[in-house]
Specification:
The protein is α/β, with parallel strands linked by helices and 675 residues long. It has 3 domains: 170 residues, Rossmann fold (3-Layer(aba) Sandwich), CATH 3.40.50; 170 residues, Reverse transcriptase/Diguanylate cyclase domain (Alpha-Beta Plaits), CATH 3.30.70; 251 residues, EAL domain (TIM Barrel), CATH 3.20.20. The longest helix is centred in the N-terminal third of the chain and has 46 residues. The radius of gyration is 49 Å and the shape is rod-shaped.
């Protein structure tokens, strides 16, 4: 029990000392023996004497302070407030001839302590109640005690009013505690909300904040909108290399430095221009935001641009700024970025769609090369959707083995015999149309299905080829090899040879096998794939370089790889009779390959002129529609039985050479001399 609950501070304001003595006797001489009454209550008002002991009653103690004038009373109340020991009740005499009277004193007291309970001690001849109300107003803190009064009457007033004051104070304390708790919880909620919308590393706003902000921006879109809003989506080039080589602490440092540079690039006074014409209902306080989505992905939200080109200006500034070197400890590192730009308008359904569009544009920019900027358009989204559909269909086709195999013969231009066949894969999509291998093979490479797909092609083709070869008599069986395309990723698999051997064992394949690979591929697999090629070469499996001249081909492949044959891409063959440059290059490759003890296959041979020119250059082998289109295994078997039905072989065997018009400068050819 607190001191206030047992001690009530009472102020007596009266100019007569006898009155003060009377109040002292009233509040200090009030103890009496109430044992008989307590026994009575215990027997008749409570259940038992034990229950009475559980409800002890402690009589309050009144502490009196005496003031002999209104001015002195005001002084005592001020002291009590300053010391935070306020009075509960003030008994104020109405008539005090010297100085302030009772009414004026009460007014002054309430100015200092508005919660003070007041009892006016007045005779009937002093003031009427109407006079008091007219002066002090109606108040539940004011009671009237007429003189003369009984002791119990004064004591009861003091007890009731002091209890009222006590309860009021306790209520204020509880309200204060409640307000503090509410404020604490609001602060905690604000901090939690801020944490939920802030990136822990960079302190930038995060994805939830961005989506919420985008919803607000979308709500302001409409036909009356005169300004433009845009999202810039970017991620860092080579961040993983830095993170892995220098450590995560360095990576975190880099991300923080990037965050600072991005904020510098979109400062309001740095931005090229802003639309100052606000529209009714538009949030004119909105500004640019830099957001970290996670990892090395950042988004910049630009609002109220005057021109759409302003977003591209900021994007270029970001690309230039991020390309500048960063200092990480004692190292200087350089990263780059590509930026996807997507504009926000009322055609969007939600913030997620706006973010997705910017992300799509960013990947388009990255595919165009480092440090590029791309602006989203609907064709990008359509391409992404088509790409995802193709991926899903490809997975189903591989699971259900929906692919078909075709075989295109490769003809020796000197012996006029079919020397080998290349396996070509075909896939008929759900719409019944064939999907070109140039579309689905790169997708299989990207999503990690190329090894599974490549091994399926190997096993199916080796099984079909073995069955076909076994159908020939020993005397009539053609001497042809099977050429199967594989990816650089397959060659980079350290267990590829083991799996190839398992396929050979399952299919009982005992014929000549050549593996064709494109020179272009993931350079991360170079070392491992080279070792695999060496092992294959030692085991008798031939290595062919496919599509040479397509993309970034290099003559070093003749030196670096254990190749036995190079296949010139069809784009060169198609133009050797009309393009002087392509003709010169093709002729040089043929002669160079011969000097390096490699054979040459020209792909895409479709005309007699091409065929005749290749013969003149000494090309070893030819492949193309002039010999045969890609055939199924039954059609291939028929061609191997009657190869003379091939138009190309007929031309080779013909003694009549058709006239050809060589490109300028090819009459003498190119002479390469052995050292």
């Amino acid at each position: 029990m607190t001191k206030f609950e047992t001690e009530r501070r009472i102020l007596i304001v009266d100019d007569q000392s006898q009155i003060h003595e009377t109040f002292a006797r009233i509040f200090q001489d009030h103890h009496r023996n109430e044992d008989d009454l307590d026994d009575f209550e215990a027997r008749f008002l409570l259940d038992s004497t034990e229950q009475a002991k559980n409800h002890p009653v402690t009589a309050p103690v009144f502490s009196l302070t005496h003031a002999y004038s209104g001015e002195e009373g005001v002084h005592e109340v001020q002291k009590s407030v300053d010391a935070e020991q306020r009075f509960s009740v003030a008994f104020v005499d109405m008539r005090m001839p010297q100085g302030m009277d009772g009414l004026e004193t009460i007014k002054r007291l309430w100015r200092i302590d508005s919660d003070l309970q007041v009892v006016i001690c007045t005779a009937y001849s002093d003031h009427t109640w109407d006079d008091i109300v007219a002066s002090l107003g109606y108040s539940d803190q004011l009671l009237l005690l007429r003189k003369p009064f009984e002791q119990d009457e004064a004591r009861q007033l003091a007890l009731a009013l002091s209890e009222k004051c006590r309860l009021s104070i306790r209520q204020e304390e509880k309200l204060k505690l409640l307000k503090n708790e509410v404020n604490r919880r609001r602060k905690a909620e604000t901090e939690l909300r801020d944490m939920a919308h802030r990136d822990a590393l960079t302190a930038l706003p995060n994805r939830p904040f961005l989506i919420q902000k985008l919803e607000q921006v979308l709500a302001n879109q409409g036909p009356r909108r005169r300004s433009h809003d845009a999202i810039l989506f970017l991620d860092l080039d080579n961040f993983k290399i830095i993170n892995d080589s220098l450590g995560h602490a360095a990576g975190d440092d880099l991300l923080n430095q990037v965050a600072v540079r991005l904020q510098e690039c979109v400062r309001d006074h740095d931005t090229a221009s802003r639309c100052s014409d606000s529209i009714d209902g538009e949030d004119v306080s909105a500004g640019d935001e830099t957001i970290r989505l996670g990892g090395d992905e950042f988004v910049v939200l630009l609002e109220r641009l005057a021109q759409r080109d302003d977003a591209l200006l900021v994007a270029r500034r970001i690309v230039q700024r991020i390309c500048e070197p960063f200092t990480l400890g004692d190292r200087m590192v350089t990263v780059g970025t590509s930026v996807g730009v997507a504009f926000i308008d009322d055609s969007l359904t939600d913030g997620h769609e706006a973010l997705r569009n910017a992300d799509t544009a960013m990947y388009q920019a990255k595919n165009s090369g480092k440090g590029q900027i791309a602006v989203f358009d609907q064709t990008m989204h359509d391409a992404v959707v088509a790409r995802h559909d193709l991926e899903a269909q490809l997975r189903v086709a591989l699971r259900d083995e929906k692919f078909e195999l075709r075989y295109q013969p490769i003809v020796n231009l000197k012996t006029h015999q079919i020397q080998g066949v290349e396996v070509l894969s075909r896939w008929r999509g759900p719409d019944g149309e064939y999907v070109p291998p140039s579309e689905f093979v790169p997708v299989a490479e990207e999503i990690g299905l190329i090894s599974q797909f490549g091994e399926w092609v190997l096993e199916r083709s080796m099984r079909e080829f073995s069955a076909m070869m076994a159908s020939f008599d020993d005397d009539n069986r053609p001497d042809v090899y099977l050429g199967v395309n594989i990816s650089r990723r397959q060659l980079g698999d350290p267990f590829f040879i083991d799996r190839l051997q398992a396929i050979i064992d399952r299919t009982k394949f005992k014929w000549s096998l050549k593996l064709e690979m494109s020179e272009n591929g993931d350079t991360r697999h170079n070392e491992r794939s080279l070792q695999t090629m060496l092992d294959l070469h030692q085991s008798g499996v031939g290595i062919h370089i496919d599509d040479f001249g397509k993309g970034n081909s290099s003559l070093t492949c003749f030196h670096d790889y254990p190749i036995e044959t190079v296949k010139i891409d069809r784009t060169f063959t198609a133009s050797i009779t009309i393009d002087h440059g392509h003709a010169i290059i093709t002729q040089a490759i043929v002669q160079l390959a011969h000097h390096l003890m490699a054979s040459i296959v020209c792909q895409g041979v479709e005309s007699a002129n091409q065929l005749n020119l290749l013969q003149q250059w000494g090309c070893d082998l030819g492949q193309g529609y002039i010999f045969a289109p890609p055939l199924d295994i039954v059609e291939l078997e028929r061609l191997l039985i009657t190869p003379g039905e091939s138009d190309g072989i007929k031309i080779l065997k013909s003694s009549v050479v058709p006239p050809i018009n060589l490109p300028t400068g090819l009459g003498q050819g190119i002479q390469l001399h052995s050292p």
